[in-house]
Design a protein that fits this description.
With 101 residues, the protein is an alpha+beta fold. The protein has one domain. 22% of the residues lie in helices and 8% in strands. The chain has a two-stranded antiparallel ribbon. The structure holds zinc ion. Zinc ion binds next to strand 2 and helix 1.
Length: 101
Amino acid sequence: MAELRKCIGSARFGIEPHDAPVEDFPSQPSQKDGLGRMCKTQWNQYTAGLAREAKTRKAAEGDVAAEAAATESGTPAPTAKRPGAGRTRKKADVAQEPATG
Ligand SMILES: [Zn+2]
């Protein structure tokens, strides 16, 4: 029985989160448990979406001259940065009993 792991998907590219077998996840040493947050299928979609966005942005900037040496290899570098990933939540749970009597 294969162990399942949560694939977080990406709302940005319309990828629904789901559970997938652990073996479907690419290894990612930068992660705490050494596995990616998305399964390979979704990861490919995600990186492809990022690449497309970058291309669109470059085209919008009108900087087409730097596209001369653009080569596409099959291995996208996992360089997804997520700013503000830390959790800061304070517990404001102060219950005071009113003195009755
Ligand atoms: Zn997935």
